[in-house]
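User: I'm new to structure prediction. If I give you an amino acid sequence, what do you actually give back? Let's try with this one:
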Amino acid sequence: MRTLCGGLLSPAPQGLELTDPKFVPDASEAGGSVTLFVNGQPAGTWDATDPKGRLVPEGFYQAQLKQDFSDGTFAFYEATFQVSYKKAQGVGLSALPNLVYAGGSVQLTGTFAGAPAQDGTKVRIHSVTGEKVRVLLLSGGQAVWDLRNEAGRLVASGVYFVVMEGPSSGPSRASSKTLKVVVLR
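Assistant: Good question. You get back a string of structure tokens that encode the predicted 3D arrangement of the chain. For your 185 residues, that looks like this:
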């Protein structure tokens, strides 16, 4: 979509860390920006526009950092973030990728009212028949599903439901978010 260029002094790829970028909508909910942090320092800000200056559609985007070395080699670092122009409310849950092949994993991210879900928040994974496959606990609003069930065995090909329940939104009412993930072997 857009390229931000800059230079950093770092002798080795393990010396860089691309911190998870967060999109911040502006007050009018008609735009916003995301700041990329490298090693905890702001390295660039994207205004969520395409090369022609138009706002990009809401959705998931990926930030990539390429580090070139003097010997001709390079290293890539990636981070995924969501662009949403509306102020976040309620329960948010993402599963990336939502189509995953054997040997892969699924990055789960949970939010409540736009902030990362509290540590220990449960994310349940169920088969299409409703059978509980796995329960993961979020840390920093995130968890990784390694495509294994509670017994440690790889799951079969199929559709799985990922469910996160949020804090109560009223008397005896809990809000929740459910996503589908497809596993192919």
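You can read the tokens as a compact description of the fold. Here is one thing that stands out. The chain has a mean pLDDT of 82.
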